Structures are given as structure tokens and as C-alpha cells.
């Protein structure tokens, strides 16, 4: 089959790379892609969030499947437009993707499905928000309702900072429409794990769990980011994939189906493994970034056949997923100043040294090709993934590979998978 991937980050690079290795795939296209994706897919310069433009491209190219990477195109209705045009698409409709694009909607679905989650308040009145801070107590958790690229969440023990977050969103309009409504919720204590599942709306295949590292700095310091690294498989503590299937994924899909919401794509549960069992922090409607970069390289099942089965409503017949037993560690290399004010345009050195290295993959995010070579072009620039016989070996290999790459102001964390590789249990990444 011929597959079009929508997006242009490291997650989409991992998708294009995985699809390109699938025996069922003749050609991979990507819109718009980036300098690294250009090595594994044919790029088309089309706006990924323009439903009509993506649909025209898919029809013009006659692709057999479209895989939507980021949340923006989902929320913009790209899957709806493709579905209307009869193009098989992996990615939920805009209304179904509200599970990610509205935290208040996700809370409401979880309540209807009986899925355990943090107690919460949501609304638009700053005084009510401050009352909710009192009700839940410290540490305070304040979230913009809508999409804010992982940056609309404040978790703090500092009351003044929590009130400032309420003020910034509801009074100053810092996050625009995304923050016109807020969620204030109870703080959940325990290790975090990302469990991604793929679904055709009825059947669910739960992928191996991953842990990502959201804070910008080593030691879980600094602001929340899109993610600074990941490893997989991560521990599920006292729960299991079949339990999560029965207690989280299947009930949510039943509630969505009862509301006539068509869900074909990734259902990603961000969980906290609390003393009272797993609780869902959030849902995402797409592969995690950087989780995809750690999870997909371990998948031995045919990725294209799997995603096509979801798109066609045929996941029930797909059979169990096959995994490489070796763990993977992904280290994100970011631009100086990320996440607030990343510098761009710096030449990247060392990429050639990693070419052809076994069990190492470099996925591009914010990169651009210029005459002189590849330069930085965004906050998160590269994801470096390595497999190893155990987590410690994968970690060593990933950092050894990352050490080969440099540019002015390169910023990374040095503790991705550190605690888990040392046998100190899962890392806490809040
Ligand atoms: P979210 O965008 O909802 O995933 O939140 C970003 C990060 O903030 C999460 O990965 C957690 O580390 C942290 N966080 C969010 N909500 C809570 C909560 N209720 N309790 C503890 N930590 C949280
Ligand atoms: N790594 C977190 C996310 O993709 O939302």
C-alpha cells in the first residue's frame, strides 16, 4: 500500500520509518515532513491542518491510507474530511478527538465510563477556580481546557504561582481560547506511565507502556515541555495491559460509540499509578511524542497492516502484537531556550556519524536543510533512540549516540531512564 503521514516532527519521522520498513508498504509520503523525514518518505509541502488540502493531496496521490500524527490536524477535522472523501484514515474525527482537545470533555466521558481519574473542577470564573484550589489543596494542579502543546499545565506547591496561573489563563487570556476554560484538580501521587492503544472503535490493541519525561531539566526540574525523553517498556506496577483494556480503554470506547463518536486511531492514556490503583491524568488522541520514538522501533508486527486494520474497522482479526523483547531509550536533543524561547538556525554536527549504526535511530523534529547542511529549526530538534539487551544497555547506547551530535546551545536531560535502569523502580516525571 501507499501511505501518507500527516505532520512533521520526530513522532512522524518514527511513523514514516516504521511504515517504510513494513513489507506491505510500497511508498511513504509525508506532509509536510522535515529534513530527516525526507530520507524515508517523499515530502509534499501541504499544510497538515488544512482538511481540504490534505484530502486533495490524498486523492491526487491515490494513497491507500492516511496516518495523522499530531493533535492539531485532528482537532481541525482532517480525519473528518478524509473520511467524507472515502479515504481510509488512521486518526479520530474532530468530535472524538475532543477527548484530547478538551480536558473538561475527557473528564465527563471518564465519569460516564466509570474510569478512575483525579477529582476536578472545571469552569470559567476565576473566583470559582480559586475556591477549587482551596478545595483540593496543595500541590495545586491548574490546566488549560484546550490544546496548549503540553505547556498549559501548572503543577506547583506554591499558592501564589497557582493563583497566577488562574489569573494568566482566565483574566489575561494567556492561552487564548484554549485557556478560556480551566480545569483545577486533585494532585495524584505516584509514578506516571503512558499507555497507548490503537483501536478501530470496537477492538483495542494495547501497546507496550512507555514513560516520558516532561520537565525540561535533569532531576525533573524546570517547566513542563512536550517531552524530553522516554523509554519502553515501562513498569505498570500492580496493573496490567488486560486490566487497562477492561477498565479504561473498552469502557471509554463504549461511551464514545453510544454518542455516535467514531474513534479510529490511537487512544493514549496518561496514567498515574497511585496507591489506590491506576488513575487517568489525561487522554491523547494520537501517538505520544517522544513515546512513539521509543515504542515503534520495538514493534515487530507490520505497522502499516496494523494501522490499516484500525482504519478499516478490522482490528478484531489482526492477532496479537509482536514486540522486540529489548527495551528502547529515547533522548530528546532540544534547542537552547526550549521550551520558552528556543533559538534556531544553528548548524547540526555529527549526524553522519550515526548513519548505519545498528539499533540506533535518529528521528528529526525541528530541522531544516540549508545549503551548508542541516540546521536547527524548532524547540525539540532530534530524538535519539537506541535498543539494548536491558534498560541500562539501551540507555548507555542512546547517550553514546547522543554524544556524537552537537550544535550551539544544545540542551538535553542526562537522566532519561536513569532510575529505572538502576533498578530503582519507575521514575517520577512530574
Ligand atoms: P497533562 O498535560 O495533563 O499530561 O499534564 C502534564 C503533566 O503535569 C503530567 O504529565 C503530570 O506530570 C503533571 N500532572 C498533571 N495533572 C496532574 C495531577 N492531577 N497530579 C499530578 N501531576 C499531574
Ligand atoms: N509526551 C507527551 C505527549 O505526547 O503528549
Q: What's a concise summary of this model?
A:
This protein is an alpha+beta fold and 430 residues long. It is built from 13 helices and 22 strands.
Task: Give the helix/strand layout.
Blueprint: E1 2-7, H1 10-21, E2 27-32, E3 42-43, H2 51-61, E4 65-68, H3 71-75, H4 78-84, E5 89-90, H5 98-101, H6 103-113, E6 120-123, H7 126-136, E7 140-144, E8 153-156, H8 159-170, E9 182-185, E10 192-199, E11 204-206, E12 211-212, E13 215-217, E14 221-224, E15 229-232, H9 241-258, E16 265-274, E17 277-284, H10 291-295, H11 303-311, E18 328-334, E19 360-364, E20 367-370, E21 373-376, E22 380-387, H12 391-402, H13 418-421
Parallel strand pairs: 1-2, 1-4, 2-3, 4-5
Antiparallel strand pairs: 6-9, 7-8, 7-9, 10-11, 10-16, 12-15, 13-14, 15-18, 16-17, 18-22, 19-22, 20-21
Helix pairs in contact: 2-4, 6-9, 7-8
This protein binds adenosine monophosphate and glycine.
The site of adenosine monophosphate has 17 residues, from strand 7, strand 8 and strand 17.
Amino acid at each position: 500500500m501507499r501511505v501518507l503521514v500527516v505532520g512533521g516532527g520526530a513522532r512522524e519521522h518514527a511513523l514514516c520509518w516504521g511504515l517504510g520498513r513494513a513489507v506491505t508498504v510500497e511508498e511513504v509520503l509525508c506532509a509536510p515532513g522535515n529534513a530527516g523525514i525526507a530520507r524515508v518518505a517523499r515530502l509534499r509541502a501541504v499544510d497538515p491542518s488544512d482538511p481540504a488540502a490534505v484530502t486533495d493531496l490524498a486523492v491526487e496521490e491515490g494513497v491507500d491510507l492516511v496516518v495523522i500524527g499530531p493533535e492539531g490536524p485532528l482537532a481541525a477535522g482532517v480525519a473528518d474530511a478524509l473520511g467524507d472523501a472515502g479515504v481510509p484514515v488512521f486518526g479520530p474525527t474532530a468530535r472524538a478527538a475532543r477527548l484530547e482537545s478538551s480536558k473538561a470533555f475527557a473528564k465527563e466521558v471518564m465519569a460516564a465510563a466509570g474510569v478512575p481519574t483525579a477529582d476536578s473542577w472545571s469552569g470559567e470564573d476565576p473566583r470559582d477556580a480559586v475556591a477549587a484550589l482551596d478545595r483540593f489543596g496543595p500541590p495545586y494542579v491548574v490546566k488549560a481546557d484546550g490544546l496548549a502543546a503540553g505547556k498549559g499545565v501548572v503543577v506547583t506547591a506554591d499558592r501564589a504561582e497557582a493563583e497566577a496561573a488562574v489569573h494568566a489563563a482566565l483574566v489575561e487570556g494567556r492561552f487564548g481560547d484554549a485557556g478560556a476554560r480551566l480545569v483545577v484538580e486533585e494532585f495524584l501521587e505516584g509514578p506516571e506511565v503512558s499507555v497507548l492503544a490503537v483501536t478501530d472503535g470496537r477492538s483495542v490493541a494495547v501497546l507496550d507502556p512507555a514513560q516520558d519525561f516532561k520537565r525540561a531539566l535533569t532531576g525533573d526540574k524546570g517547566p513542563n515541555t512536550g517531552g524530553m525523553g522516554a523509554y519502553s517498556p515501562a513498569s505498570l506496577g500492580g496493573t496490567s495491559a488486560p486490566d487497562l483494556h477492561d477498565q479504561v480503554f473498552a469502557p471509554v470506547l463504549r461511551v464514545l460509540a453510544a454518542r455516535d463518536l467514531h474513534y479510529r486511531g490511537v487512544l493514549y492514556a496518561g496514567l498515574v499509578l497511585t496507591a489506590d490503583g491506576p488513575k487517568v491524568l489525561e487522554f491523547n488522541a494520537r501517538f505520544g511524542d517522544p513515546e512513539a520514538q521509543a515504542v515503534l522501533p520495538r514493534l515487530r508486527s507490520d505497522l502499516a497492516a496494523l494501522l490499516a486494520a484500525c482504519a478499516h474497522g478490522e482490528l478484531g482479526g489482526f492477532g496479537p502484537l509482536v514486540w522486540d523483547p529489548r527495551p528502547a531509550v529515547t533522548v530528546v536533543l532540544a534547542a537552547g531556550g526550549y521550551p520558552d524561547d528556543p533559538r534556531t538556525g544553528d548548524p547540526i554536527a555529527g549526524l553522519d556519524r550515526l548513519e548505519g549504526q545498528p539499533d540506533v535511530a535518529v528521528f528529526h523534529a525541528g530541522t531544516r536543510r540549508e545549503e551548508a547542511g542541516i540546521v536547527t529549526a524548532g524547540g525539540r530538534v532530534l530524538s535519539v533512540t537506541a535498543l539494548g539487551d536491558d534498560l541500562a544497555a539501551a540507555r548507555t547506547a542512546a547517550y553514546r549516540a547522543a554524544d556524537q551530535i552537537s550544535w550551539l546551545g544544545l540542551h538535553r536531560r542526562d537522566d532519561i531512564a536513569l532510575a529505572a535502569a538502576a533498578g530503582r523502580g519507575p521514575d517520577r516525571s512530574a
